[in-house]
Design a protein that fits this description.
The complex is a heterodimer of chains A (about 325) and B (about 475).
Chain A (H helix, E strand, L loop, with lengths): L2 H32 L4 H11 L3 H18 L1 H10 L1 H20 L6 H31 L13 H4 L2 H25 L2 H32 L2 H4 L1 H23 L3 H23 L2 E3 L9 E2 L7 H28 L13
Antiparallel strand pairs in A: 1-2
Helix pairs in contact in A: 1-2, 1-3, 1-6, 1-8, 1-12, 3-4, 5-6, 6-8, 8-9, 8-12, 9-11, 11-12
Chain B lengths: L2 H40 L2 H35 L1 H35 L6 H30 L4 E4 L2 E4 L2 H5 L2 H31 L4 H36 L1 H8 L11 E8 L4 E8 L2 H7 L9 H16 L9 H30 L7 H10 L1 H16 L4 E3 L3 E2 H4 L6 H32 L9 H6 L2 H5 L1
Antiparallel strand pairs in B: 1-2, 3-4, 5-6
Helix pairs in contact in B: 1-2, 1-4, 1-6, 1-13, 1-15, 2-3, 2-15, 3-4, 4-6, 6-7, 6-12, 6-13, 7-8, 7-11, 8-11, 11-13
The chains are: A mainly alpha (about 325), B mainly alpha (about 475).
Chain lengths: ~325, ~475
């Protein structure tokens, strides 16, 4: 395996980490309107992700940084080409981040309400737009010979990418519901469990349609038939098990399975891309690949050493922080956010 | 409108705004860590209260700093894609390392610190805030590594039509980084110190929590003195390095058109005419520039005219004939002077304060306390002017000697798009700033007594669930 291939895998892993972790806190953000019935319940929910959301978001920044460092052309083409959706994602991430911090700084329900709406909307829009972005990448974008693109509206927004966005949003929502079943008690937990069962079925439906659309509108099954079919099989299995476990009130296992489902879905997207990083809808020769978009070997080698050294520590203290805050959150205790 | 101008304006606006929050975060969290250390070592509840209160203000600021920083990482690709393609091989690595090493550390341990008061042992909790502080400092190291490469490119080789890294060690021991990092760090310490000093002064004037704010202001004065002297010394070193590595920036910062006399005088004031390339109404301090540049009272500096000729011979083959290598002189000149001016004030204030403290007259000297209030803005202004000098003074280059700013911009992004995003950012920034200042003032007026875990009796009165439920 050459270094640039390794970095493609590492970036995929970072995005798996991102969707696994930030996926549930997006889902919790959506639940603040779809599950919670009053401000107290919303506060409990926000506090379940209180210690984690910031670090979860860093996975996205790390992903962006890693693409910049390992595949400068991918970074340049994607970020300049996806200007408008990324602008909205940025504004959402800004709104979400400060809302957690600001929402209860003033003891006024109306004040809190404003920031809670910001949390809700940005928690839906961010995964939706990231879903649109990744799936439209699978479909291909009008990349020209000079590696640049000036996509039109329908290049971002079409049936395939919209459905991709919806699917990713649903996956995050389900994952968030499972997180709530693990971190809350009483009424919220009961309602989250109930909704999770329905959401799991919706996810299976959405994924089925997405697979059919992918078959029709992308070349990922031509390019990697066996691997993609296996991945689809595993994804269906994971979400099937999710439904089974949540029905049996095995919350930990249900959460694991919805996380695994997200991880496998992200894997399927990256496998579908490989060895390309950006597919040109104009000409195959204009595709950006792990070979023509990457940094030099020296740079990749340094980055590999750095990543391999630091990542175990990051994983270590991340796990430790989840262990410290393993207890369920209730409104009986002091809620920081 | 010109996309290059718009992209530059956006970068300047978003970076300056972001850098209001960053140095305050770095400086304030370091002070909070020291306060909590004093609490753990001396077992005095007052220090815990200090760590909680100032930590509380830090968090409001930190949140805005973090989210405005995300824009910066995206912006290189969005507005400066040609730049990203050209230097990504070198420049991307420090950014990725910053995320991996610093962002994870600060975000995870700040979560543990905020939510961990009752769940972690005292020492473990203290370790968390030190790791946050370390994270913010490491973040500065790596972003400055990236910035230093733009000022003084090292550790690279030109290959495949772009700059590729060939010496990582050279990149992280870049002479520019070694002078720039201490300057930024001590500047950040000043920012935190003057913030704590100003807020404490305000409350001392209002005769609130005298003991609490007296302790705070004393600590702030010590930090302020260390920071401001550090900033001056490191700034001096940086200026000398600048003379060697980017003489044009130095010449512009000094408004030197023709080579100076030997010894060179330092210009304290001048009306600069960029068209005629001359200065009027000059007020010069003899010998000072020679000392500033070489630490001795002799030696001359090259003027912009000479340097333009030298750069033309050296760089025209890279960037095209007829390039003007002179940066916006007035902005560079005046930013430099304003930075120095505020810097000098920042040295004097802690000295006066410490003197008053020794005489036991600190709390009673209302004139001094009143002065500390507007002085909160001094480090912010000095930081901003310093960066304006550094970045505007580097023009027309984005990477010195390798790539001009005009060549760095995204060719596929229409000007209207950049204008639209700029307006959106400015709108959001305005809201953020207003909300943050409002919250800060509110929290400062509430004072340290109502914070959770500080005074349990008062806590029940501020229980938000009474209102929300």
């Amino acid at each position: 395996m050459v270094l640039s291939e390794l970095w493609f895998v590492l970036i995929a892993i970072v995005f798996i980490g991102f969707f696994f972790l930030e996926g549930f806190d997006f889902g919790v953000g959506m639940s603040t309107r779809l599950v919670a019935k009053n401000q107290t319940e919303r506060s409990v929910m926000v506090n379940t992700i209180g210690p984690f959301w910031d670090a979860n978001e860093v996975w996205l920044l790390t992903g962006g940084g890693a693409i910049f460092a390992a595949f400068p052309h991918w970074y340049a083409t994607m970020f300049s080409g996806y200007y408008l959706p990324l602008l909205v994602v940025l504004l959402c991430l800004i709104a979400r981040g400060v809302s957690f911090e600001f929402r209860r700084k003033v003891d006024n329900p109306r004040w809190t309400n404003i920031w809670d709406w910001a949390i809700f909307i940005s928690s839906i829009l961010s995964p939706f737009l990231l879903g649109v972005l990744f799936t439209s990448m699978l479909k291909g974008m009008p990349i020209q010979k000079d590696m640049n693109m000036q996509p039109g509206f329908t290049d971002f927004i079409n049936i395939y990418s919209l459905w991709g966005g919806v699917t990713v949003t649903l996956l995050c929502f389900l994952h968030g519901l499972h997180f709530l079943t693990l971190k809350t008690s009483g009424e919220i937990r009961r309602r989250a469990t109930l909704l999770a069962k329905r959401a799991a079925l919706a996810v299976l439906g959405a994924l089925a349609i997405f697979v059919v659309l992918s078959w029709m509108m992308t070349d990922i099954f031509e390019a990697h038939l066996v691997t993609e079919l296996m991945l689809v099989g595993f994804i269906v299995l994971a979400y099937g098990l999710t439904y089974y476990f949540i029905s049996k009130k095995r919350e930990g296992l249900a959460f694991t399975m919805s996380g695994l489902g997200l991880a496998l879905t992200v894997s399927a997207i990256f496998v579908g891309l490989f060895p390309r990083v950006m597919i040109s809808s104009i000409n195959k020769a204009f595709d950006l690949t792990v070979y023509n978009a990457s940094s030099g070997d020296y740079s990749l080698k340094i980055m590999t050493i750095v990543a391999v050294t630091i990542l175990p520590f990051v994983l270590g203290y991340t796990i430790w922080s989840y262990y410290i805050f393993r207890k369920r959150v209730t409104d009986k205790e002091h809620l920081t956010y | 409108m010109d996309p290059i101008f718009l992209a530059r304006f956006q970068f300047a606006a978003t970076t300056i705004f972001h850098f209001f929050f960053v140095p305050l975060s770095i400086g304030l969290v370091l002070m909070v860590a020291v306060m909590e250390t004093l609490y753990v070592v001396k077992k005095n509840e007052l220090y815990k209260k200090m760590a909680k209160f100032w930590g509380h203000l830090f968090l409001i600021n930190f949140a805005v700093g973090v989210v405005t920083g995300i824009i910066q990482e995206f912006q290189f690709g969005m507005n400066w894609s040609e730049y990203s393609r050209f230097v990504g091989d070198v420049f991307g690595a420090p950014l990725a390392i910053e995320a991996l090493l610093a962002f994870f550390m600060e975000s995870t341990f700040i979560g543990l610190w905020i939510f961990g008061w009752d769940r972690l042992s005292k020492k473990l909790h203290l370790a968390c805030i030190w790791l946050v502080s370390l994270g913010t400092i490491l973040s500065a190291v790596w972003i400055l590594t990236a910035n230093s490469f733009m000022q003084v490119p090292v550790g690279y080789v030109m290959k495949n039509g772009r700059a590729e890294m060939n010496d990582f060690l050279a990149l992280i021991t870049n002479g520019q980084l070694l002078v720039e990092f201490p300057h930024v760090l001590t500047g950040a310490i000043c920012t935190g110190a003057f913030f704590v000093a100003g807020v404490s002064a305000y409350n001392l004037l209002k005769k609130r929590n005298i003991v609490f704010y007296k302790k705070s202001i004393q600590l702030a004065l010590i930090f302020g003195l260390i920071g401001s002297i550090g900033v001056a010394l490191s700034g001096h070193t940086q200026a000398q390095y600048l003379v060697k590595t980017q003489p044009m920036k130095m010449a512009a910062a000094e408004g030197i058109w023709k080579d100076t006399a030997d010894p060179a005088p330092w210009s304290a004031f001048a009306l600069i005419d960029t068209k005629k390339q001359e200065n009027k109404l000059e007020l010069n301090i003899p010998y000072a520039l020679s000392f500033l540049s070489y630490s001795k009272f002799e030696g001359s500096l090259k003027g912009m005219e000479t340097l333009q000729k030298e750069y033309t011979a050296k760089y025209d083959s890279i960037v095209g004939e007829g390039t003007n290598y002179i940066p916006p002189v007035k902005t560079t000149y005046w930013s430099f002077r304003l930075m120095i001016g505020f810097g000098v004030a920042m040295i004097l204030l802690p000295i006066i304060g410490l003197f008053l403290w020794k005489r036991g007259r600190l709390v009673g000297s209302t004139w001094f306390l009143k002065f500390l209030l507007p002085a909160i803005t001094f480090p912010f202004l000095a930081n901003t002017f310093g960066w304006m000098m550094t970045e505007i003074g580097r023009q027309p280059w984005s990477v010195f000697g390798l790539m001009t700013t005009a060549d760095a911009v995204s060719p596929n992004v229409p000007a209207g798009m950049i204008l639209f995003s700029t307006i959106m950012y400015l709108l959001v920034f305005t809201i953020l700033l207003l909300v943050m200042v409002y919250l800060m003032i509110r929290e400062i007026k509430k004072g340290p007594d109502v914070l959770h875990g500080v005074d349990d009796k008062l806590l029940t009165d501020s229980d938000p669930f009474k209102v929300g439920a």
